[in-house]
Amino acid sequence: MENARDLLIRKPAPAYGRLKDGEWEQALAYAEDYKRFLDAGKTERDCVAEAAFQAEKHGLSAHIRHGKALILVRSGRKPLSAGLRIVAAHIDAPRIDLKPYPLYEKDGFALLKTHYYGGIKKYHWLAAPLELHGIVYLRDGRAVKVAPDENEPVLFISDVLPHLGADQAKKKLSEAFPGENLNVTVGSVPDPEEGGDRVKLAVLSILHRRYGMTEHDFQSAELCLVPAGNARDAGLDGSMIGAYGHDDRSCAYAAMRALLDTSKPEYTGVCIMADKEEIGSEGITGMQSAYFDTVLEGLCAAEGTQLRTCYQNSFCFSGDVTNAFDPNFPDVSDPLNNARLGHGPCVMKATGRGGKSGSSDASAETLLKTRQILDGAGVSWQMGELGKVDQGGGGTVAKFLAMRNIEVVDVGVPVLNMHAAMEVAAKIDCWQTYKAFLALYNDR
Predict the structure, then answer these.
(1) Measured between alpha carbons, how far is residue 393 from residues 110, 356, 441 in Å?
(2) Which end of the chain is less congested by CB atoms within 10 angstroms, N or C?
(3) In terms of Cα–Cα distance, which of 398, 407, 319, 403 is closest to 89?
(4) How wide is the angle at C-alpha 191 spanned by C-alphas 186 and 197, nearest 5°?
(5) Do residues 26 and 431 lie in contact, with contact meaning Cβ atoms separated by under 8 Å?
(6) Rounded to two decimals, what is the model's pTM?
(7) What is the pLDDT of residues 303-353, one digit of tens each?
(8) Whether the predicted pLDDT of 53 surpasses 70
(9) How many CB atoms are located within 10 Å of the residue 119 CB?
(10) What angle do CA 136, 140, 146 make, to 5 degrees?
């Protein structure tokens, strides 16, 4: 019989101690699959293409918008009037976008003008190896994918050397690295042809040879710089994954994988991979778009069900990462209410800033149902908030689901180095997040 201490006091513990026989091996195998997804999905377009490919292998068709947002649906036994089981995650990540007219020559170098995307610490992107990714529509309408192969040279944004950095060091961090100065170096050898802009011409010749593009084609291009290199095991024990894009591809992959691994659910399961979360979920591929409603409205109409009836009976996990407690920076967090690496996915009642501004703030009823789903499936999980009150804050797509009258709560992977070129997540947390989403899809 439990004593009072065991019964009454919460005892947080790492998720490793709750694994069943052979489950750690499953978690490691899952991590390898996830790393391959990260390597294939350096941009939201790449993620959509990979998810659509995986879905097709499992007999599911993907609803895709502009190649940057995706919906997968697994039909359930119950009618759509009974509601959906939804996991919504985003697949965009902070990066460096090119401006519409990016290429210029200065002082013997060819460079690209950029406009950063999302919340970044600009200095993370200086003196770091970068890759050019994206899509170009040529004048004749052909679409050309731009992506490096493993032997292609990296690109970079230069930084002043410490020997000459006295003036830079005097500036505030927010002022020392102006966004307008994040210019990418792409060449230094002039074209043999006489005339001006010879280095720029040499770079354009390379782009034309590889992709068939001219400088005019930048006008109908979507190109960005992302960190070069593949996902790697992190830590001497290999227990973590160091990679670009854990926020929020760790949750997007778990949502997709869980739906593909679900068969004959009671409720129809929906995986949403949304774009533009890092800039407010705007645009036709963001979670505020009516695109998602249009797809689901079509499904409901085929059954004679009103979309609003379907929504009000649905339950959703907003799959998004949160900050993991960092012993190097303990002062920004409340240790009692911060997610810990290795303790499973974090359920967040509220996000937002200050007084929960911009948060859907899940109800007690929603949290009870979440507890029942996760505990019933043996998921190791935790609750937390995004750092100390008034320290900062952030948001997710949850509020845009709530605006549709869908019951929703945030559930996601704790991450170190969030929004950096190399984020870090624990393999056990990625695995337990997958189990959490699988439990939702199999809710009865």
Answers:
(1) 38, 9, 29
(2) N
(3) 319
(4) 70
(5) yes
(6) 0.96
(7) 999 999 999 999 999 999 999 999 999 999 999 999 999 999 999 999 988
(8) yes
(9) 12
(10) 20
The rounded percent of the chain whose pLDDT value lies above 70 is 100
Domain identity same for 191 and 253: no
Residue carrying the six token digits 């249009």: 294
123 and 11 co-located in one domain: no
Which pLDDT does position 2 carry in this prediction? Answer: 66
- Indicate the average pLDDT of the chain: 95
DSSP, res 331: G
What pLDDT band is residue 5 in, cutting at 50, 70 and 90? confident
Instruction: Give 264's DSSP letter.
Output: S
Q: How many CB atoms lie within 10 A of CB 236?
A: 6
In a domain, 236, yes or no: no
- Omega before 33 within 30 of 0, i.e. cis: no
Tokens of 435: 């189990």
| Residues with Cβ within 8 Å of residue 232, at least 6 apart in sequence | 241, 242, 243
The answer to whether residue 235 is domain-embedded is no
Mean pLDDT to the nearest integer, 9-20: 89
Rounded Cα–Cα distance for residues 127 and 176 (Å): 15
Query: Cα separation of 14 and 429, whole Å?
Result: 10
Residues whose CB falls within 8 Å of the CB of residue 39, separated by 6 or more in sequence, listed in order:
230, 231
pLDDT at residue 241 in the model = 98
Q: How far is Cα 108 from Cα 340, in angstroms, rounded to an integer?
A: 49
- In 3D, which of 371, 359, 376 has the Cα closest to residue 320? 359
SS3 237: coil
Residue 422 lies in a domain: yes
DSSP state of 220: G
> What is the pLDDT, as a whole number, of residue 174?
87
CA nearest 371: which of 294, 317, 416? 317
For residue 133, how far is the Cα from the chain centroid? Answer: 16
Q: Which pair of tokens denotes residue 365? A: 């009823």
Residues pairing with 157 in the sheet? 184
pLDDT in tens, 60-98: 999 999 999 999 999 999 999 999 999 999 999 999 999
- pLDDT at residue 1 tops 60: no
Give the separation between CA 184 and CA 376, rounded to whole angstroms: 51
| pLDDT for res 57 | 95
Sign of the CA dihedral with 264 first, then 369, 395, and 182 last = negative
Its domain, for residue 139, covers 95-227
